[in-house]
Amino acid sequence: MGVFLVLGTLLTVLMLPDPWAWAAGAIFGLAGGAAAFGILSTVEQSDRRRALRRRSEQQRLRDGLAEVDEMLRTRSGRLPPSTQGQLRMMTVGLEEIVERWEDLERLPEQQEGVRRTVESHLPRTIELFLALPDEDKPRHAQEFKAQVGLLAEAVAKTRDTVVAKNLQALQTNRWLLEESLGDPDETLFRENGL
Question: Which keywords annotate this record (predicted)?
Answer without folding.
Answer: Membrane, Transmembrane, Transmembrane helix
